[in-house]
Write a structure and sequence with these properties.
homohexamer; alpha+beta; Jelly Rolls; five-stranded antiparallel β-sheet; 21% helix; globular
């Protein structure tokens, strides 16, 4: 009998909790709707926790001062705060993230489909830039030091890299509880399955073997 | 004196008309706000035309049955309806476009930062696909024939190509009056100025000469 | 036992899945939320399908090139794409429709409470018009041929009719996943129960027997 | 010289002030934006008045306790509060209205394209109803007395009539600063120019002479 | 067995129905979504009732002409219409309220985080005012008599009091289905647990014993 | 002549530029709309700068690592980034701020009518709390150290104070380009003109001389 109850609860979580995720970054119609993360492994979003059970810890998280692991080919790390970590963010339309860079580490070209972003450098020297949309494709970029701020408008491709010899890091504020991220290299050259190499060769005006090299690497 | 008036009107159009463009794809608070396109060459958006002067032609456009010119390296053409052509679209949150393809023509990977899209094939056989966001990067694709419909969610990278021996074409409906377009190749490899090739080499895990080939071609 | 599970699943679908339908045509907070149409006959909206189970077919539909059946008193047919047919449209704020007309067929006065509309004629010659709101009540209308486009602003009464001797058809793009439709004749003269005929006689400044003829016919 | 300045100011008001009207019923990004009604006769919307010049009277209006004139064929009157009367409403997404009824007076079938409505009866006995959208076309109606409340959802056709022997009145709250109103009879049978009577005859399944009677009366 | 079903239904209501509450005051994507109030005592929001079961009573409420009980230290009473009382308001972005005042009764300083408000005096003489945001902190106030209207912009602190010798009352229209209310005195001096009195003393520039008096009273 | 042109430009800026400020924190319909701050001293918001003239510096600001001046009765300082400082934020729906605290300094009870907030402690030890809305009025609070994060939901009263012996500081991310701030003490006890002390005495259940002390101090 209990197995059935658990099964049903799982089904409920599967079909119901998803729905909160489907609501948008809009003004909520209550003070807050803390994510109910009980079923976090099986669902894709969260219903509201009973307000009576909400505690200060639902709005609290520690550890953003800790650098991420940059021992990877990019020499960089990006940690975004999710609703699982900070359930109080549910419905509030904002989140933050931290990026760390080894010397000359790169945060490769990417964009956030659902959020503009303000980055604030907390350590080191960082080149940050974004590219305007077609047909201008202008690159706007700056060299940033500690305390400098740079804005990446929603949906535009941007990147950063550490241009100093020491470590570098920034904190980012993003105007969505779930900004999403599309890594351009992964999307175009590393999708599953891959986009046909002859199609990409024609799209990028290069030989197919150039595309093959990119597809092998991403 | 009249010159000054014209100058002032130009300045007014420069500083004021822009503002309508700044309003968002939301429910307007009037029935319609036909774009006043008198100053179309110098401004980036449009104020409302006097409702008394609005005519049926403001909501009318001909020519969408005509194929675009596909004599270019992509073998494709994309024509989007702008407010200048169809001023009645102002504030209504929707537009359409037409794409044409020579045999094996390609509409290269791109995305629309402000609109989901439904394409409807009107001629030929077209492969259409989009890639989900990080970290999944799944490619979802279909082969489409006349009358087939495919959906590209807002902000995700997508492409199409003609996989038949004749011409091909589709009509697209887009959920914004100004969806915007970011051509991934142009943004990453063809920006002005270019992104440093060593940065891109590290970001895409390839030799710098691979990046150079892409930068020369885009 | 299984009966109880089915009952509970039905109840879950009844109380939960409805909710996705209650979310609005806004920017979603995920890339997509494909409608879970398992319970489509008993519910009025859809939760998100598990992203891992999403396939390209969720974003695909065939058959829009096929004419609808116009053998009815209106001599016209309107087919709107629903979430049941194209579950990938869920949360994306757009849909399309197809209308067909026998010679001199009429799409009677109606409006969409939740969407502006762009129609594109694909066959024949069509008169299209909409009426501005009170107190102007201006009729803006055009004769359209193949490739012509006409815009109906959200919430305004509009109609079309085939003014040629052959068949006619258009494809419509609508700026909502569920635009809704109010057929003016059905709402005013054909509601269940009917509005009192003496009330309508006073409202329309005609004798009650005129209203009776309209009520009998709608 | 002053004449030119006035002309220019008029032009400014014509091209600029309209724009505030084009913003939507959304959360504003300031506390208030009192409508600047200096140019109220020539424009269709209002820019923000200088906050320093804003006074309490901008948020104040008297006279809603006064009955409107019901000496007309409908035996009813509807007074909506406009921004010209109450400029403080600008950007706040709400307005109110007052309707009065002579005995058996009728507020004919109409709808508000941009607002749901709550009516509160302050005098007399009123029948109020609305019709759900196609294909159900259900009429939901109630008889209301003083203090009773009835809700008309956004965009649905509704009506009221006085079903008592004395006067009747209600106050309406509407969820938009400019709800708009489409009077169904005027839109369909009284537009300028009129919709072809043969088209309407086919649309409403009645003889053309029935349509002629309605067109002559509306 | 029935116990389990009831338990499961309770759980469903706990995790699911909440979600409708999490949707925002936006344009819904259906005509209406009447709140399903079956589980009203255990949940914090409502899913949509089956449209087939919706009746006119879902949109109806009586009793707003009745004065509330003002026998309390404030000498005032505020009754807001909730979804439990008027389930048809769900998703429609509007509600109303009634306030009553004994002679010299006070509706203490408060604000609505999610709605602008229009008050209409129906009895007596009322002083109404709101304070603009920092750093101006201007008080805009008026004396209102029957039929007078005053607007309180969203999120600003406002108050009213009866400045006449008889009773007074107003009806308020609010631009949200759930405007929320923060009573400034209760929030600052009467929270559970209380804010440290030394902190408040420093914040308000007064001796701690002044704060103690306020904390004891609120 | 030039004087007139300047006068007219000033008038244009006064009546027009305001309007961009009136648009809401929604998805813009262009990639960005950099604020045109030429007229910053006389206007209350900004039109879009010509995109061709936009430069990287429009999205850049330095100095957020510098502590504000805390030599004041509160022992605290709050610096919010305005559009004048960082014009690229216009239309993007986000901003950041920095607060500094002398030992035991207090950021007094206040709220932001248009934004939720995430604070990240960068130095010292801070007590942060917010109070839920009426009727619960629960205080949720935490002691935060470097790297700790705390969320203040939109529109709820919150405060912070330095509970350590050294300086303290945090960076805040806010989900609006213009969150606004209402300082509760200033609004209630320090408005211009003041709210009647007898009214406040009744509202807060204390003697009028308690109110007088608060009014003198704020």
């Amino acid at each position: 009998m209990e197995a059935i109850i658990l099964l049903l609860l799982a089904l409920i979580s599967l079909t119901c909790s998803i729905i909160a995720f489907a609501t948008s970054d809009q003004i909520p119609i209550q003070d807050f709707c803390v994510a109910d993360v009980k079923y976090s492994e099986t669902v894709y979003g969260y219903a509201c926790k009973d307000p009576k059970l909400v505690i200060a810890d639902d709005f609290y998280l520690s550890g953003t001062e800790l650098a991420g692991n940059t021992s990877n080919p990019f020499g960089s790390s990006a940690k975004r705060i999710s609703l699982t970590q900070l359930p109080g963010l549910n419905t509030l339309g904002i989140t933050i993230a931290r990026a760390d860079f080894a010397p000359w580490g790169v945060n490769p070209p990417h964009y956030h489909p659902r959020a503009s972003e303000i980055i604030t450098v907390v350590e080191g020297t960082i080149e940050a830039g974004f590219i305007t949309s077609n047909p201008e494709n202008r690159l706007l970029k700056k060299i940033l030091v500690k305390g400098d701020v740079f804005v990446n408008p929603r949906g535009l491709v941007h990147y950063q890299r550490n241009v100093g010899d020491g470590n570098a890091a920034f904190i980012a504020a993003l105007a969505s509880q779930n900004p999403g991220v599309v890594m351009v290299g992964n999307a175009v050259f590393g999708s599953d399955p891959t986009i046909s190499s002859d199609l990409l060769a024609k799209a990028f005006h290069v030989d197919e073997n150039v595309i093959h090299k990119l597809q092998e690497a991403n």
